[in-house]
Structures are given as C-alpha cells and as structure tokens.
Amino acid sequence: MSIPIVSFIGRSNSGKTTLIERIIPELVKAGYRVATVKHAGHGFDLDTEGKDSWRHKRAGASSVVVVSKGSLALFADVSEQLKVEEVRDRFLDASYDLIIAEGWKSEGYPKIIIVRDQLGEISYSSDGLLAVVSDKPITIPVPVLHLDDVAGVAAILIKHFPRRRREHELEA
C-alpha cells in the first residue's frame, strides 16, 4: 500500500510551514512516522559552497549523496518537476505513515487550505478538501479550524489517514 499524501496549500506567507511544523509533533506523539515534501516554486540551493558535496556537484556529478550515521542527503539534477508520488516512490520506503506536502495545489491530493484574508484568495474545489485553517470565520461545507487548533488539524489527519501497524506491533 502506498504512503498517503496530504497537501497543505495557501498563499505565500499564509503560515503553511509554521502549521506543518506544529502538526508534526502531534502526529509523532500519536505514533506516526512522517515525511514532508516542500514545493519550492522559485528554485532553491541547499548545498553549501566549498563543501565536498558542492565541489562534487560543481565538478559535474549529476547526483551527490551524503551519508552519515542517521542521516542521508541527496542533491540530484531532475529533468522536470517531480510530483510528490514520484518522490515517494523513488526515495521513501514503506515505513512512513503519511507524507505532508507543502504546495502542489493543482494535484489531486487531499488538501488542507490555510486562509488568512478571504476564501477567494485561493481557488479550491470541495473534492478532496479535508479542512480549512483560518484566522477568519468562513462558511464552507468542511471543518474550519483556527490557526492555533493544531490538535484539531492533527485529529483530522489521524481520522483520514490511519497509522499503519508496524511488524513489531503485530507481534505484541
């Protein structure tokens, strides 16, 4: 079974990253293993100039993998924008319970929208819309939670994406 994906969408500076950062500990406390995938519409550069990995990439390596005890980083050229399920299928093992994607509003993933000013600021369809998180009252046929209701948002995710039992839990 594929790892489920939920997308958090909203305008730039609406609080998506902060909300995700606050929800992850709630899910981890509930036993979830969570992966996140962030869409960077304007590109990014994580590698540090002068470091060995940067030097390898600059020398022409198409991919550079840095591995240490407990960590792995991959810097790779991609020919086109990857979808979250492509990232999941290529790079994540089946031990994860949920992938939280930040962005990908046009994809068909279940969504939570963060709204700061008015609902019209982001187009949406009720298909796959799990909830709206806002600091303004909104009338819409899905749950509307306040930006500070982190436990409420986590509860919606737990309800829609039940954690899979791990092998060691099945033996107990």
Strand fraction equals: 15-25%
Strand order of the largest sheet: 2-5-1-6-7-8
Q: Encode the helix/strand succession as letters.
A: EHEHEEHEEEEHH
The CATH C-level name is: Alpha Beta
Describe the sheet with the most strands: 6 strands, parallel
Mean pLDDT: 83
Distance between the termini: 22 Å
CATH superfamily: P-loop containing nucleotide triphosphate hydrolases
Describe the protein.
There is one protein chain. Helix content is 27%, strand content 24%. The model has no long low-confidence stretch (mean pLDDT 83). The radius of gyration is 18 Å and the shape is globular. The chain has one domain: 3-Layer(aba) Sandwich (Rossmann fold). It has 172 residues and is an alpha/beta fold. It has helices at residues 16-29, 52-59, 84-91, 150-160, 167-171, and strands at 5-9, 34-38, 63-68, 71-76, 98-102, 111-115, 129-134, 144-146. The longest helix has 14 residues, at 16-29. A six-stranded parallel sheet has the order 2-5-1-6-7-8, with helices on both faces.
